[in-house]
UniProtKB/TrEMBL annotation:
It comes from the Bacteria. It comes from Pendulispora brunnea. Catalyzes the decarboxylation of orotidine 5'-monophosphate (OMP) to uridine 5'-monophosphate (UMP). GO terms for molecular function: orotidine-5'-phosphate decarboxylase activity. The gene is pyrF. InterPro entries: Aldolase_TIM, OMPdecase, OMPdecase_AS, OMPdecase_bac, OMPdeCOase_dom, RibuloseP-bd_barrel. The keyword Ribosomal protein does not apply. Belongs to the OMP decarboxylase family. Type 1 subfamily. Substrate binds at residues 11, 33, 60-69, 119, 180, 202, 222-223. The active site is at residue 62. It catalyses: orotidine 5'-phosphate + H(+) = UMP + CO2. Homodimer. This is Orotidine 5'-phosphate decarboxylase.
Length: 250
C-alpha cells in the first residue's frame, strides 16, 4: 500500500511512454504530474489515459497570465479532470483569487496550486531578477499573498517547506519538487547525479525523507525515477523513505 504522497513527474515527449512508465509505477504513486512537455505535445490526450486508469492528475502548466485568461484555462483543466492545477503565485492577487473562485464554481474537483519560487533558482538568480530577498523569504511572501486569496496548496522547495508550514499552518498543502535520492550511508546528503555534469538544473534540493520530515505533504520526483535503471524499484524506495519520515513525524 503506497503512502499516496509520491507524485511522479511524467516528463516524456510521448504519451505512450508516459502511460507505460506511470502505470508500472502506479502502486507506489499518489498522483502523476503531467507537465509542459507532454501537454504541449499531446494536448488533452496527455491526461486521458491517467483518468481512465484512475490515477489522479497534477496538471503542472504553471499558468502565469492575466486573470481572465487564467480563469478560462481553469475551466478547461477542470473539464479534463485535473485534480490539481498549478499557477504562478507571481501572477498577482487578482489572478490567484479568480483562479480559486473559478475552480470552486466549477465543482471544486480541482485544487489550485500556487508555485512560489522555482526550485531551479538560487540567491544569485533572484538578485539577477531584481528580487532583493533570499528564496526562503520570497517564497514565504508569495505563499502568504496566495493564501490570502484563498489558495490552499503550494509548490516550494524542500529548503523552505518548514518556513511555509509555520507561516501558513496545517491548512496548507505543501508540495516539493527538487527531491533527489539519498547517498547510501550518508543520511540527509543528496545524490544529484546530473549536477557534476551540469545537466541537473535543480538548485534547492533535499531527499524525500528530509522534505517530508520538514513538513511536506507530497514530494514530486521525475528524473531520479524516470532515468533509473529500475524505475519501479526507485519509486518503491522513495515511497518507503516517505513512509518512514511520516512515521517519524507522528
Ligand atoms: O519549482 C518547481 C516547480 C515544478 N517543478 C517540476 O517538478 C519536476 C521535477 O523533476 P525532476 O526531474 O525530479 O527534477 C519537473 O517536472 C518540473 O517541471 C520543479 O522541478 N520545480
Amino acid at each position: 500500500m503506497s503512502t499516496g504522497r509520491l507524485i511522479f513527474a511524467a516528463d516524456f515527449a510521448d504519451v505512450d511512454e508516459a502511460r507505460r512508465a506511470s502505470l508500472a509505477l502506479q502502486p507506489h504513486l499518489g498522483l502523476v504530474k503531467i507537465g509542459l512537455e507532454l501537454f504541449v505535445g499531446a494536448g488533452p490526450q496527455a491526461l486521458s489515459w491517467a483518468r481512465e486508469a484512475g490515477l489522479p492528475v497534477f496538471l503542472d502548466l504553471k499558468l502565469h497570465d492575466i486573470p481572465a485568461t487564467v480563469e478560462r484555462a481553469v475551466d478547461r483543466a477542470v473539464a479534463l479532470g485535473a485534480r490539481m492545477l498549478t499557477v504562478h503565485a507571481g501572477g498577482g492577487k487578482e489572478m490567484l483569487a479568480r483562479a480559486v473562485r473559478r475552480a470552486e464554481a466549477a465543482g471544486d474537483t480541482c485544487t489550485i496550486v500556487a508555485v512560489t519560487v522555482l526550485t531551479s533558482l538560487d540567491d544569485a538568480d533572484l538578485t539577477q531578477l531584481g528580487i532583493d530577498a533570499k528564496p526562503d523569504a520570497h517564497a514565504r511572501r508569495l505563499a502568504r499573498l496566495a493564501f490570502d486569496q484563498g489558495v490552499r496548496a503550494f509548490v516550494c522547495s524542500p529548503e523552505e517547506v518548514a518556513t511555509l508550514r509555520v507561516e501558513l499552518g496545517p491548512m496548507a498543502t505543501l508540495i516539493t519538487p527538487g527531491v533527489r535520492p539519498e547517498i547510501p550511508g550518508l543520511p540527509g546528503a543528496t545524490f544529484n547525479a546530473g549536477s557534476a555534469k551540469g545537466s541537473d538544473d535543480q538548485k534547492r534540493v533535499a531527499t524525500a525523507r528530509d522534505a517530508i520530515a520538514r513538513g511536506a505533504d507530497y514530494v514530486v520526483v521525475g528524473r531520479p525515477i524516470r532515468d533509473a535503471a529500475d524505475p519501479v524499484a526507485a519509486a518503491a524506495s522513495l515511497d518507503q523513505s516517505v513512509r518512514e519520515a511520516l512515521a517519524g513525524r507522528a
